[in-house]
Specification:
Blueprint (H helix, E strand, L loop, with lengths): L12 H9 L5 E5 L2 E6 L2 E5 L6 E5 L2 H10 L4 E3 L5 E5 L5 H15 L10
């Protein structure tokens, strides 16, 4: 994934919800009292309390690249497998791409064939 360095847009939990639920078979649930988004009962995103960030499933390599690029925008959320993204620090395009990448990590292959 290429990093989008365009100007951040006003993102919010409402925008995250809209983008996440637009992905095939994505559903909203709750995990430890926080809204989450799942496909096939597997979580790919959560909305931490406060509404300033989203936590997304990722790979260790993507996490490392994101944090190295902008440590104010991205941080390790759970031992290299999840990234917390500050909503005010990323563009809408990047947010959509990160959500799609997170979704792809848990979606069944019939829904999410590997990128070409």
């Amino acid at each position: 994934m290429a990093l989008d360095v365009s100007k951040p847009q006003r993102n919010s939990p409402t925008i995250v919800r809209r983008l996440a639920l637009a992905l095939p078979e994505a559903k909203e649930g709750a995990h430890f009292g926080q809204p989450d988004f799942r496909v096939n009962k597997k979580i790919f995103a959560t909305l931490p309390v406060g509404g300033q960030a989203v936590s997304l499933k990722t790979t260790p390599a993507n996490l490392e690249a994101l944090v190295a690029t902008d440590p104010a925008a991205f941080r390790d959320a759970w031992r290299g497998r999840w990234v917390t993204v500050r909503l005010d620090r990323v563009s809408r395009t990047m947010l959509r791409d990160l959500l799609t990448d997170a979704w792809r990590l848990v979606a069944p292959k019939r829904l999410a064939p590997p990128p070409t």
